Amino acid sequence: MQQLRLIKLRPTDALPFGLLLLADETIAAIEKYIYSSAVYTLMNAQEMIGVAALYPLSADDLEIKNIAVAASHQNRGIGSFLIQKIIEIAGRQQYRTLIVGTSDTGFQQIRFYERNGFRKYALRKNFFTTHYPHPIFENGIQLKDMVLLRQSL
User: Fold this and answer.
1) Looking at residue 27, what is its pLDDT?
2) Which tens digits make up the pLDDT trace of 108-125?
3) Angle 99-104-79 (CA atoms, 0-180°, nearest 5)?
4) What pLDDT, on a 0 to 100 scale, did the predictor assign at position 75?
5) For the domain that residue 117 is a member of, what is the CATH number?
6) Residue among 83, 78, 75, 76 at smallest CA distance from 102
7) pLDDT value, residue 131
8) If we measure between CA atoms, which residue out of 114, 82, 100 comes closest to residue 146?
9) Residue 37 phi/psi, 5° resolution?
10) Global pTM?
11) Domain encompassing residue 146
12) Cβ neighbours of residue 12 under 8 Å, at least 6 residues apart?
């Protein structure tokens, strides 16, 4: 993984919606947070293989609004590498807590975050039925609630 580089996008850079859409359902949903977020891309040589959008909730709390790894690069430890880089960034910026939310049916995502040091702490009831115009299904189950996980830095 020595050739992986994390690059912070400038406000004038094109957003990698193709990757962002791997972790969020619609461009409209992404646009609700993306312009207020710091966006980082993970590069493997000249190929963009990952993205993370980090949104400041307060002086102490930073939320991962979007994190995605290209399908062809998943299950290789790259997501965990990206999480570790995000933890480093959050620490340098003196945040105390890193927060992420995912669907309560996203069993793989929840396990991924827990393996990377996050712990469940809250549930946003009816988040997906309230914030998205159409029903979303994952693992054959309609998404309703969002599980919030956090990690102290």
Assistant:
1) 94
2) 999 999 999 999 999 999
3) 50
4) 92
5) 3.40.630.30
6) 83
7) 83
8) 100
9) -110, 155
10) 0.91
11) 4-152
12) none
Total tally of structural domains belonging to the chain: 1
Dist CA 82 CA 53 (whole Å):
11
Nearest-5° Cα angle at 58, 152 to 55: 85
Nearest Cα neighbor of 64 from 136, 118, 26 is 118
pLDDT attached to residue 140: 87
Cα distance between residue 134 and residue 68, in whole Å:
22
Q: Block means of pLDDT (10 residues each) for the chain, length 153 residues?
A: 87 96 92 97 95 98 98 95 97 97 92 98 93 84 94 97
End-to-end alpha carbon distance in the chain: 24
What residues pair up with 138 in beta bridges, in sequence order? 141
Residue by residue, DSSP assigns 68-81 as EE-GGGTTSSHHHH
- 3 state SS of 52: strand
